[in-house]
Specification:
Layout (H helix, E strand, L loop, with lengths): L1 H15 L2 E5 L8 H7 L7 H8 L4 E4 L5 E12 L8 H4 L2 E14 L2 E15 L5
Antiparallel strand pairs: 1-3, 2-3, 3-4, 4-5
Length: 128
């Protein structure tokens, strides 16, 4: 009987593993290489960038008056351990990736840009 209960708990935990994403969905399938093929410094305009990636998540200005647009996308997967009764209180978290695209405009044209992708490893259990 104990064996059935343990198997049931493990099966339920595996089913409960969830994924979540947030941010600009246009960046979801982008890589540094694909962005490099789309944005040309000194040539690509604000209108073209907006057409490719939509409205930016944040807009800032430099002291010189140049505009900075920021885009971000994150996708995380919650650990199945998080859903195991009692054990999940001590050992849980999420893993995934975060993509960030930052573009500096001089007037209406891209001056510089950077695209990065980094790993997310978040632990939030009492023992982690």
């Amino acid at each position: 009987m104990k064996r059935i209960a343990i198997i049931s708990i493990i099966s339920f935990s595996l089913l409960m593993v969830g994924c979540a994403s947030s941010g600009n969905k246009h960046l979801q399938k982008e890589t540094e290489t694909s962005v490099q093929a789309k944005i040309v410094e000194g040539r690509t305009t604000k209108a073209e960038v907006k057409g490719m990636f939509g409205s930016p998540e944040a807009v800032n200005f430099t002291d010189g008056g140049n505009e900075i647009w920021k885009y971000a996308f994150a996708k995380v997967k919650v650990s199945g351990k998080s859903f195991i009764p009692f054990y999940g209180l001590f050992h849980n978290g999420a893993t995934g990736t975060k993509k960030e695209l930052t573009i500096l405009f001089s007037g209406d044209v891209v001056k510089k840009y950077t695209m990065s992708e980094s790993a997310i490893d978040s632990k939030s259990g009492w023992a982690d």
